[in-house]
Amino acid sequence: MMRSTALTTNRLLASPVRNLAGGALFVLAVSALAICAYVAVGWSWGDALYVAVITVFTVGYQEVRPIDTPLLRAITIALITLGCTGIIFMTGALVQFITATQFSEILGDRRMSQQIERLSDHIIICGFGRIGQQLARTLRGAAASFIIVEASEARAAEAAKAGYLCFRGDATEEATLIAAGIARARTIVTVLHDDAANVFITLTARSLNKQLSIIARGEAPTTEAKLAQAGADRVVLPAHIGAERIAEILLFPEAGASAGLERVERELLPFGIAMDTVIAEPGSAWVGRTVAQIESAASMPILIVEVERAGTRQRERASAQTRIEAGDGLVVLGRGIQAALAGCGAPVHSG
User: Fold this and answer.
1) Over the stretch 257-304, which tens digit does the pLDDT of each residue have?
2) CA torsion angle for 194, 200, 236, 218 (degrees, to 10)?
3) Which of 207, 257, 292, 336 is deepest in the core (most CB within 10 A)?
4) 4 lies in a domain?
5) What gap in Å lies between CA 183 and CA 119, rounded to an integer?
6) Is the dihedral of CA 266, 267, 273, 277 positive or negative?
7) For the chain, how many helices (H) and strands (E)?
8) How many domains does the chain have?
9) Structure letter (DSSP) for residue 4
10) pLDDT digits (tens, 9 = 90+) for 205-241
Protein backbone atom coordinates (compact mmCIF):
# COMPACT_ATOMS: atom_id res chain seq x y z
CA MET A 1 0.00 0.00 0.00
CA MET A 2 2.78 2.42 0.92
CA ARG A 3 4.69 1.58 -2.29
CA SER A 4 1.55 2.20 -4.37
CA THR A 5 1.01 5.57 -2.73
CA ALA A 6 4.65 6.56 -3.27
CA LEU A 7 4.50 5.59 -6.97
CA THR A 8 1.32 7.63 -7.45
CA THR A 9 2.90 10.65 -5.77
CA ASN A 10 6.07 10.43 -7.85
CA ARG A 11 4.07 10.11 -11.06
CA LEU A 12 2.06 13.21 -10.16
CA LEU A 13 5.08 15.29 -9.20
CA ALA A 14 6.90 14.25 -12.39
CA SER A 15 4.55 16.34 -14.51
CA PRO A 16 4.82 20.13 -13.99
CA VAL A 17 1.92 20.74 -16.38
CA ARG A 18 -0.31 18.34 -14.49
CA ASN A 19 0.67 19.94 -11.17
CA LEU A 20 -0.07 23.41 -12.52
CA ALA A 21 -3.47 22.39 -13.87
CA GLY A 22 -4.34 20.52 -10.68
CA GLY A 23 -3.38 23.46 -8.48
CA ALA A 24 -5.46 25.88 -10.56
CA LEU A 25 -8.52 23.60 -10.39
CA PHE A 26 -8.10 23.19 -6.63
CA VAL A 27 -7.94 26.97 -6.05
CA LEU A 28 -10.98 27.54 -8.27
CA ALA A 29 -12.96 24.85 -6.46
CA VAL A 30 -12.12 26.22 -3.00
CA SER A 31 -12.94 29.78 -4.08
CA ALA A 32 -16.24 28.70 -5.63
CA LEU A 33 -17.29 26.88 -2.46
CA ALA A 34 -16.35 29.88 -0.29
CA ILE A 35 -18.31 32.28 -2.53
CA CYS A 36 -21.39 30.04 -2.35
CA ALA A 37 -21.02 29.85 1.44
CA TYR A 38 -20.83 33.66 1.78
CA VAL A 39 -23.89 34.07 -0.45
CA ALA A 40 -25.75 31.48 1.63
CA VAL A 41 -25.34 33.61 4.75
CA GLY A 42 -26.75 36.68 3.03
CA TRP A 43 -23.85 38.35 1.18
CA SER A 44 -24.13 39.61 -2.37
CA TRP A 45 -22.30 37.78 -5.18
CA GLY A 46 -20.03 40.79 -5.72
CA ASP A 47 -19.00 41.05 -2.07
CA ALA A 48 -18.45 37.29 -1.85
CA LEU A 49 -16.25 37.23 -4.98
CA TYR A 50 -14.21 40.22 -3.78
CA VAL A 51 -13.51 38.73 -0.36
CA ALA A 52 -12.61 35.35 -1.87
CA VAL A 53 -10.08 36.92 -4.25
CA ILE A 54 -8.30 39.13 -1.72
CA THR A 55 -8.22 36.25 0.77
CA VAL A 56 -6.87 33.59 -1.58
CA PHE A 57 -4.20 35.89 -2.99
CA THR A 58 -3.34 37.19 0.53
CA VAL A 59 -3.81 40.82 -0.46
CA GLY A 60 -5.57 41.63 2.84
CA TYR A 61 -7.54 44.77 1.97
CA GLN A 62 -10.23 46.06 4.31
CA GLU A 63 -13.22 43.72 4.67
CA VAL A 64 -16.37 44.88 2.85
CA ARG A 65 -18.51 43.24 5.52
CA PRO A 66 -17.81 42.41 9.15
CA ILE A 67 -16.88 38.81 9.83
CA ASP A 68 -18.38 38.65 13.28
CA THR A 69 -20.16 35.32 13.48
CA PRO A 70 -18.70 31.86 14.15
CA LEU A 71 -19.97 30.64 10.76
CA LEU A 72 -18.38 33.52 8.81
CA ARG A 73 -15.12 33.06 10.68
CA ALA A 74 -15.14 29.30 9.97
CA ILE A 75 -15.74 29.96 6.24
CA THR A 76 -12.95 32.54 6.13
CA ILE A 77 -10.47 30.34 8.03
CA ALA A 78 -11.16 27.44 5.68
CA LEU A 79 -10.75 29.75 2.67
CA ILE A 80 -7.43 31.11 3.97
CA THR A 81 -6.06 27.66 4.81
CA LEU A 82 -7.08 25.84 1.66
CA GLY A 83 -6.91 28.75 -0.80
CA CYS A 84 -3.46 29.98 0.24
CA THR A 85 -2.15 26.40 0.25
CA GLY A 86 -3.45 25.94 -3.30
CA ILE A 87 -1.84 29.20 -4.45
CA ILE A 88 1.51 28.17 -2.95
CA PHE A 89 1.31 24.77 -4.66
CA MET A 90 0.32 26.37 -7.99
CA THR A 91 3.18 28.88 -7.75
CA GLY A 92 5.66 26.07 -7.13
CA ALA A 93 4.29 24.14 -10.11
CA LEU A 94 4.65 27.23 -12.31
CA VAL A 95 8.28 27.68 -11.25
CA GLN A 96 8.87 23.96 -11.84
CA PHE A 97 7.34 24.19 -15.33
CA ILE A 98 9.46 27.20 -16.34
CA THR A 99 12.64 25.65 -14.93
CA ALA A 100 12.00 22.26 -16.56
CA THR A 101 11.32 23.89 -19.94
CA GLN A 102 14.48 25.99 -19.83
CA PHE A 103 16.54 23.06 -18.58
CA SER A 104 15.24 20.88 -21.42
CA GLU A 105 16.15 23.53 -23.99
CA ILE A 106 19.63 23.92 -22.51
CA LEU A 107 20.20 20.17 -22.54
CA GLY A 108 18.86 19.91 -26.09
CA ASP A 109 21.14 22.70 -27.34
CA ARG A 110 24.14 21.21 -25.55
CA ARG A 111 23.43 17.73 -26.93
CA MET A 112 23.09 19.10 -30.46
CA SER A 113 26.34 21.08 -30.12
CA GLN A 114 28.16 17.94 -29.00
CA GLN A 115 26.79 15.99 -31.96
CA ILE A 116 27.86 18.72 -34.39
CA GLU A 117 31.33 18.87 -32.86
CA ARG A 118 31.72 15.14 -33.51
CA LEU A 119 30.85 15.57 -37.19
CA SER A 120 33.69 15.37 -39.70
CA ASP A 121 33.73 14.92 -43.47
CA HIS A 122 29.97 15.38 -43.38
CA ILE A 123 27.34 16.91 -45.66
CA ILE A 124 25.46 20.12 -44.89
CA ILE A 125 21.96 20.43 -46.36
CA CYS A 126 20.67 24.00 -46.47
CA GLY A 127 16.88 23.91 -46.56
CA PHE A 128 14.36 21.26 -45.53
CA GLY A 129 11.80 21.72 -48.27
CA ARG A 130 10.66 18.96 -50.60
CA ILE A 131 14.09 18.50 -52.16
CA GLY A 132 15.84 18.73 -48.80
CA GLN A 133 13.51 16.13 -47.30
CA GLN A 134 14.06 13.68 -50.15
CA LEU A 135 17.80 14.27 -50.01
CA ALA A 136 17.84 13.63 -46.25
CA ARG A 137 15.93 10.37 -46.66
CA THR A 138 18.31 9.18 -49.36
CA LEU A 139 21.43 10.09 -47.37
CA ARG A 140 20.12 8.38 -44.25
CA GLY A 141 19.41 5.28 -46.33
CA ALA A 142 23.02 5.39 -47.50
CA ALA A 143 24.26 5.82 -43.89
CA ALA A 144 25.89 9.15 -44.81
CA SER A 145 26.79 11.70 -42.14
CA PHE A 146 24.88 14.94 -42.61
CA ILE A 147 23.27 17.90 -40.86
CA ILE A 148 20.30 20.02 -41.92
CA VAL A 149 20.32 23.81 -41.62
CA GLU A 150 16.82 25.30 -41.63
CA ALA A 151 15.62 28.80 -40.70
CA SER A 152 11.95 27.90 -40.30
CA GLU A 153 11.02 26.81 -36.79
CA ALA A 154 8.24 24.54 -38.07
CA ARG A 155 10.46 22.79 -40.61
CA ALA A 156 13.33 22.49 -38.15
CA ALA A 157 10.96 20.83 -35.69
CA GLU A 158 9.77 18.52 -38.47
CA ALA A 159 13.36 17.55 -39.25
CA ALA A 160 14.12 16.89 -35.59
CA LYS A 161 10.93 14.81 -35.27
CA ALA A 162 12.08 12.71 -38.23
CA GLY A 163 15.28 11.97 -36.33
CA TYR A 164 17.66 14.17 -38.36
CA LEU A 165 20.40 16.29 -36.83
CA CYS A 166 19.12 19.81 -37.50
CA PHE A 167 20.54 23.23 -36.69
CA ARG A 168 18.01 26.04 -36.76
CA GLY A 169 19.47 29.15 -38.32
CA ASP A 170 19.81 31.27 -41.45
CA ALA A 171 22.25 29.51 -43.79
CA THR A 172 23.13 32.83 -45.46
CA GLU A 173 24.90 33.90 -42.25
CA GLU A 174 28.52 32.91 -41.63
CA ALA A 175 27.87 32.13 -37.97
CA THR A 176 25.23 29.56 -38.89
CA LEU A 177 27.50 27.72 -41.33
CA ILE A 178 30.37 27.78 -38.85
CA ALA A 179 28.06 26.33 -36.19
CA ALA A 180 27.11 23.56 -38.64
CA GLY A 181 30.80 22.59 -38.87
CA ILE A 182 31.53 23.85 -42.37
CA ALA A 183 35.27 23.86 -41.68
CA ARG A 184 35.14 20.06 -41.28
CA ALA A 185 32.50 19.34 -43.91
CA ARG A 186 33.22 17.76 -47.29
CA THR A 187 30.07 18.93 -49.13
CA ILE A 188 27.37 21.55 -48.78
CA VAL A 189 24.12 21.31 -50.69
CA THR A 190 21.96 24.43 -50.86
CA VAL A 191 18.43 23.67 -52.05
CA LEU A 192 16.47 26.76 -51.05
CA HIS A 193 13.70 28.11 -53.27
CA ASP A 194 15.39 31.52 -53.40
CA ASP A 195 18.10 31.70 -56.07
CA ALA A 196 19.65 34.81 -54.50
CA ALA A 197 19.96 33.01 -51.16
CA ASN A 198 21.58 30.01 -52.84
CA VAL A 199 24.11 32.28 -54.55
CA PHE A 200 24.90 34.03 -51.26
CA ILE A 201 25.26 30.72 -49.40
CA THR A 202 27.60 29.48 -52.12
CA LEU A 203 29.78 32.59 -51.84
CA THR A 204 29.88 32.38 -48.05
CA ALA A 205 30.61 28.65 -48.01
CA ARG A 206 33.43 28.98 -50.52
CA SER A 207 35.05 31.75 -48.48
CA LEU A 208 34.87 29.64 -45.30
CA ASN A 209 36.20 26.40 -46.81
CA LYS A 210 38.20 26.47 -50.05
CA GLN A 211 38.28 22.67 -50.32
CA LEU A 212 34.53 22.27 -49.88
CA SER A 213 32.45 20.62 -52.59
CA ILE A 214 29.40 22.80 -53.27
CA ILE A 215 26.20 21.63 -54.96
CA ALA A 216 23.63 24.37 -55.52
CA ARG A 217 20.05 24.44 -56.69
CA GLY A 218 18.83 26.99 -59.21
CA GLU A 219 15.33 27.80 -60.38
CA ALA A 220 16.00 30.20 -63.25
CA PRO A 221 18.35 29.01 -66.04
CA THR A 222 20.24 32.31 -65.79
CA THR A 223 21.18 31.45 -62.19
CA GLU A 224 23.41 28.55 -63.27
CA ALA A 225 26.24 30.83 -64.42
CA LYS A 226 25.96 32.98 -61.28
CA LEU A 227 26.19 29.95 -59.01
CA ALA A 228 29.20 28.65 -60.93
CA GLN A 229 30.91 32.04 -60.62
CA ALA A 230 30.11 32.11 -56.90
CA GLY A 231 32.03 28.85 -56.45
CA ALA A 232 29.52 26.03 -56.96
CA ASP A 233 31.05 22.80 -58.24
CA ARG A 234 27.72 21.49 -59.46
CA VAL A 235 24.49 23.31 -60.27
CA VAL A 236 21.18 21.45 -60.32
CA LEU A 237 18.14 22.87 -62.12
CA PRO A 238 15.14 20.78 -60.92
CA ALA A 239 12.79 22.09 -63.61
CA HIS A 240 15.33 21.30 -66.34
CA ILE A 241 16.02 17.83 -64.95
CA GLY A 242 12.29 17.13 -64.70
CA ALA A 243 11.76 18.10 -68.33
CA GLU A 244 14.69 15.90 -69.41
CA ARG A 245 13.34 12.98 -67.39
CA ILE A 246 9.93 13.31 -69.07
CA ALA A 247 11.62 13.43 -72.48
CA GLU A 248 13.63 10.33 -71.59
CA ILE A 249 10.47 8.44 -70.59
CA LEU A 250 8.81 9.45 -73.86
CA LEU A 251 11.83 8.43 -75.96
CA PHE A 252 12.92 5.36 -73.96
CA PRO A 253 9.98 4.13 -71.88
CA GLU A 254 11.71 0.86 -71.05
CA ALA A 255 15.17 2.22 -70.18
CA GLY A 256 16.09 1.41 -66.60
CA ALA A 257 12.52 0.41 -65.79
CA SER A 258 13.16 -3.22 -64.90
CA ALA A 259 12.87 -4.31 -61.31
CA GLY A 260 16.34 -5.84 -61.53
CA LEU A 261 18.02 -2.53 -62.39
CA GLU A 262 16.10 -0.70 -59.67
CA ARG A 263 17.22 -3.30 -57.13
CA VAL A 264 20.84 -3.01 -58.28
CA GLU A 265 20.65 0.78 -57.96
CA ARG A 266 19.35 0.56 -54.39
CA GLU A 267 22.05 -1.91 -53.40
CA LEU A 268 24.88 0.17 -54.90
CA LEU A 269 23.70 3.45 -53.35
CA PRO A 270 25.37 2.87 -49.92
CA PHE A 271 28.70 2.52 -51.75
CA GLY A 272 28.32 5.91 -53.43
CA ILE A 273 27.71 4.35 -56.86
CA ALA A 274 24.83 5.78 -58.85
CA MET A 275 22.99 4.65 -61.96
CA ASP A 276 21.88 7.06 -64.68
CA THR A 277 20.37 6.79 -68.13
CA VAL A 278 21.94 9.03 -70.78
CA ILE A 279 21.21 9.58 -74.44
CA ALA A 280 23.90 10.08 -77.05
CA GLU A 281 22.89 13.16 -78.98
CA PRO A 282 23.33 13.27 -82.78
CA GLY A 283 26.65 14.84 -83.71
CA SER A 284 28.29 14.10 -80.37
CA ALA A 285 31.68 12.42 -80.01
CA TRP A 286 29.92 9.32 -78.71
CA VAL A 287 28.38 8.43 -82.06
CA GLY A 288 30.38 5.73 -83.78
CA ARG A 289 32.42 4.84 -80.70
CA THR A 290 32.36 1.50 -78.96
CA VAL A 291 31.47 1.03 -75.32
CA ALA A 292 35.12 0.25 -74.51
CA GLN A 293 36.27 3.50 -76.15
CA ILE A 294 33.71 5.59 -74.25
CA GLU A 295 34.58 3.97 -70.91
CA SER A 296 38.30 4.56 -71.54
CA ALA A 297 37.74 8.22 -72.46
CA ALA A 298 35.76 8.97 -69.28
CA SER A 299 37.59 11.06 -66.69
CA MET A 300 36.45 8.68 -63.91
CA PRO A 301 35.63 4.97 -64.01
CA ILE A 302 32.18 4.22 -65.44
CA LEU A 303 30.46 1.05 -66.60
CA ILE A 304 27.92 0.98 -69.44
CA VAL A 305 25.65 -1.97 -68.68
CA GLU A 306 22.80 -1.62 -71.18
CA VAL A 307 22.03 0.03 -74.51
CA GLU A 308 18.57 0.78 -75.89
CA ARG A 309 18.58 1.43 -79.57
CA ALA A 310 17.10 4.71 -80.81
CA GLY A 311 13.55 4.57 -82.12
CA THR A 312 12.95 1.06 -80.76
CA ARG A 313 12.33 -0.63 -77.47
CA GLN A 314 15.03 -3.16 -78.14
CA ARG A 315 17.50 -3.36 -75.28
CA GLU A 316 20.75 -5.23 -75.29
CA ARG A 317 23.47 -5.98 -72.81
CA ALA A 318 26.45 -3.75 -73.50
CA SER A 319 29.71 -5.40 -74.47
CA ALA A 320 33.09 -3.82 -75.09
CA GLN A 321 32.49 -3.99 -78.86
CA THR A 322 28.96 -2.53 -78.82
CA ARG A 323 28.97 0.51 -81.09
CA ILE A 324 26.87 3.53 -80.14
CA GLU A 325 24.59 5.20 -82.65
CA ALA A 326 22.93 8.62 -82.57
CA GLY A 327 20.02 8.72 -80.14
CA ASP A 328 20.89 5.51 -78.32
CA GLY A 329 20.09 5.31 -74.62
CA LEU A 330 22.79 4.03 -72.28
CA VAL A 331 22.45 2.82 -68.68
CA VAL A 332 25.64 3.89 -66.88
CA LEU A 333 27.01 2.98 -63.42
CA GLY A 334 29.70 4.90 -61.59
CA ARG A 335 30.67 7.71 -59.23
CA GLY A 336 30.20 11.26 -60.47
CA ILE A 337 28.68 10.13 -63.73
CA GLN A 338 28.07 13.59 -65.15
CA ALA A 339 31.61 14.74 -64.40
CA ALA A 340 33.00 11.54 -65.91
CA LEU A 341 30.93 11.96 -69.05
CA ALA A 342 32.01 15.57 -69.40
CA GLY A 343 35.56 14.29 -69.66
CA CYS A 344 34.59 12.38 -72.80
CA GLY A 345 33.94 15.64 -74.61
CA ALA A 346 30.53 14.36 -75.62
CA PRO A 347 27.30 16.25 -74.88
CA VAL A 348 24.66 13.86 -73.58
CA HIS A 349 21.02 14.07 -72.62
CA SER A 350 20.73 12.85 -69.00
CA GLY A 351 17.80 11.55 -67.04
Assistant:
1) 554 555 555 555 655 567 777 888 887 777 888 888 888 887 777 778
2) 30
3) 336
4) no
5) 10
6) negative
7) 13, 11
8) 3
9) H
10) 999 999 999 999 888 778 888 998 999 998 887 766 6
